[in-house]
Amino acid sequence: MTTIHLVRHGEVDNPEGILYGRLPNFGLTERGHEMARRVGEHFATAATQPVELVASPLLRAQQTITPLHEALDRPVFTDDRVIEAANSFEGQRLNARRLAEPRNLVRLYNPLIPSWGEPYRQIVLRMQAAMASLRAKLVGHGPDAEGVIVSHQLPIWMARLAGEGRGLVHDPRKRECDLASITSFTFDSSTLVSVSYESICADLQPGQAVAGA
User: Fold this and answer.
1) Is the whole model's pTM more than 0.85, yes or no?
2) What pLDDT digit, counting tens, does each position of 146-173 carry?
3) Between 40 and which of 68, 96, 147, 197 could a Cys-Cys bridge form, CB atoms 3.0 to 4.6 Å apart?
């Protein structure tokens, strides 16, 4: 048995409210750093501590995993496959008026793909590949080994929907994936046997939807 915990990064400093996507230099707010500290404490004090740490290359993910890295004194492997989803609206401050502009409206022709960004199925495949690589490492640590991957809302949600056998097309407003939340996948060999979710920073969530994710 192995368990992989997909952790969403903490709150990002984004006062202009733009869709930052894969843009560089978007780090955590003070509250985001508190979320990261709580993630570190959560895993460092758990009955079974993670033996492998992985993070997206983006600054917010690297900052989120740092307290855990320091607490466990384990290296962090950066995996490009768990990066935020590509999005053609990146860098814009979106609202109904902006979406109605011709240059943006043309991108909304098929929400099932979605037409404005990286295809959902492609996100699933790269997340599953990253998890398979980590699972192979965990097996080498012996029974019941656990690992952590710090990633982003949409990739984590895609991995969960696929793992639970649900359709990938969804309403983004209904994703169950709080900032600094933990979505855990437990495997028996290569077979997924359970998926669970925990929001360890429910009291620290911002009062409105977060742009970017």
Assistant:
1) yes
2) 999 999 999 999 999 999 999 999 999 9
3) 68
